[in-house]
Write a structure and sequence with these properties.
The protein contains 12 helices and 5 strands. By secondary structure, the protein is mostly helical. The strands form 2 sheets. It has a 3-stranded antiparallel sheet. The chain has a two-stranded antiparallel sheet with strand order 1-5. Helix 7 packs antiparallel against helix 8.
């Protein structure tokens, strides 16, 4: 982890704790990263080679979004690990491919014509009866070599979402700055109509929606739901509680003497 990745992890942890002083600390850590990015000092001073991608710079060869990684991993031979799950042109007879039903995609992405999270980062499949969109962030076939085997762990948009949530939840809420954070990400994704005139609760709803749109297939939403204590999550029938949110220790760990 480089310096800014550590600050990003701090922001996550403080926000998770969620007390008043933690909100202050989370916002401070997030804003340090945002300031560095906006003043272009992250690259020059800390060897943090990341930047916000724009709709014009995202295409099928860079759908991993790894240029936005504040922290990411190189995972060898990703293609063989996901071949049964990330298949843009799945068949009705296949049970393993992951996709978002077309009706759900149209409901989630408010502008299906310009939001690159749908138009570029997802691939529509109309060959099957169950039409849907396959997420391409880890799909390897079309990626340029610089983007292959890259798995995102913390990307720039999450830092803006953390800051937005902190601006809403701090003792003296600043809803204007919260909306600025959300609109910054939305504009980078091709949504040029800004969010305006929302109250605190409405902004929190928009933050959840933006998390869902931005991090589809990255695993971030699971921890967002867990952190916020969400009882029901999309496309899952059980009510969520500790039994669902607490990941079990691997069997090997238990055999080695670890007890939950």
């Amino acid at each position: 982890m480089n310096y800014y990745a550590v600050k990003a992890l701090q922001a996550r942890v403080y926000l998770w704790r969620g007390k008043n002083e933690d909100i202050v600390n989370a916002l401070s850590a997030a804003n340090e990263i945002i300031t560095a990015l906006e003043n272009n000092i992250a690259i020059n001073e800390m060897y943090t080679y990341c930047n916000f991608l724009t709709p014009e710079t995202v295409n099928k060869s860079c759908t991993s979004m790894s240029r936005e990684n504040i922290f990411g991993l190189n995972v060898s031979d990703v293609a063989s690990r996901i071949v049964n799950y990330i298949k843009p042109y799945y068949l009705d007879s296949e049970n393993t491919p992951m996709y978002l039903l077309t009706t759900d995609a149209m409901s989630l992405y408010e502008n299906s014509a310009t939001d690159i999270r749908l138009t570029t980062l997802m691939e529509p499949n109309t060959n099957a009866q169950n039409t849907g969109y396959t997420p391409l962030k880890v799909y390897q076939s079309d990626l340029a070599n610089d983007y292959k085997n890259k798995i995102s762990m913390i990307r720039i948009p999450e830092i803006y979402y953390i800051a937005a949530e902190c601006y809403v939840k701090q003792n003296n809420p600043n809803l204007s700055l919260a909306l600025n954070c959300l609109n910054t990400v939305r504009e980078k994704r091709g949504l040029y109509t800004p969010l305006e005139d929302l109250d605190a609760e409405q902004i929190l709803v928009e933050i959840q929606k933006e998390y869902h749109k931005e991090f589809l297939s990255e695993g971030v939403m699971f921890y967002y739901y867990k952190r916020t204590g969400t009882k029901t999550i999309p496309n899952y029938t059980e009510d969520m509680g500790d039994a669902q949110y607490v990941l079990p220790y691997p069997e090997f760990e238990i055999q080695s003497g670890r007890v939950q």
